[in-house]
């Protein structure tokens, strides 16, 4: 019982016992590889937060690294590697100076790191520099892989904790749950059941209002679950959501545009991109052919007041009428309507699956994704031991609480309905039904392709396999 009295883990083995309660193939893999730099880099592409990393063409002003510190072997230099497109950046500036939570009377710690990564000759993304706070000062050292084992591991762990807090609120809550609700409420307010867009979109709203009601009541409320076990719980969560709204642009919600903007078109082993782009294309074909059956001209789109009210309210209430988001306020062409509706279906199904379904896989092994950190980061190097890391990790009861929540959030419910299945048969005409059949065939083929690729990987990427992608945000 020693481990529970101090409420701190005495050794890494103690944490292993917790993982045994629920094991997945991935959480087991994570528990074996969490310390490896290559796996740390991999997770920015195929982990729970694939939307942050970007190609770096010029170093940020607040990160002063040199060729000597980043490439101590003298074999490479930054300018050349940037020129080749091999340098990447993850910048958690949204978390800068966010008021962190207090749990059991103890102040928690949430960093706003900058992570520089380099694609090596083996096509792995390797972290080469980590600065834990945005402002470069003497007591905010830049950590390197050449530092002592525990200094470097602790720096990476602070990044993983920041990542948990940012992606839960930004990638997951804001960009899938809350958006899906906006799309659904505007649909129910503006489109009658006989409208083709109602028929096309209603399956993608199933249970969304229910789950978000529960989330507001239990998860993100004052004194709710999030406030009990995360460093951003409480006031900080609202700050992060508010700031995240400014990064919520139309292009970032459309995966082809997003990948291009972040300069990630040809990064190797980026399965979120590969599967996501294919799903986008398949959904886009369904939307385009189905809506073209009902709308023959751009004028018909412009004159459909119900459709125009739907998009107007989304712009007004979902994006607070901010033109900088690039969200359309009206549809003047077929193409505009088709692209937006594709984004809506993709967001509610594929994107939610990508950021939701891996939560336990990557977070069940707590050291890979600590929900909070209980000690501040070191102000200088060379003082960290394994005990410091164990003391910085969330306490035992915080960890247990977090693990059970994340397990529940990533579990599929028994009555899930998966992409391409429409048991309620809203469409009756022959043509749209034919298109749905083609849609199902294409999804089947993509699923088989993904399974074939995964059979060759040590760590399969399954979250966008149509077989496990739900139609709607329902959990």
Automatic annotation (TrEMBL):
InterPro entries: LipOase, LipOase_C, LipOase_C_sf, LipOase_CS, LipOase_mml
One Gene Ontology MF term: iron ion binding
GO cellular component, one term: cytoplasm
Keywords on record: Cytoplasm, Dioxygenase, Iron, Lipid metabolism, Metal-binding, Oxidoreductase
Pathway listed: Lipid metabolism
Domain Lipoxygenase: 1-475
Cellular localisation: Cytoplasm
UniProt cofactor note: Binds 1 Fe cation per subunit.
GO BP terms in the entry: lipid oxidation
PANTHER family reported in the protein's UniProt record: LIPOXYGENASE (PTHR11771)
Similarity comment: Belongs to the lipoxygenase family.
Name of the featured protein: Arachidonate 15-lipoxygenase B-like
Organism: Pundamilia nyererei
Gene name of the encoded protein: LOC102204280
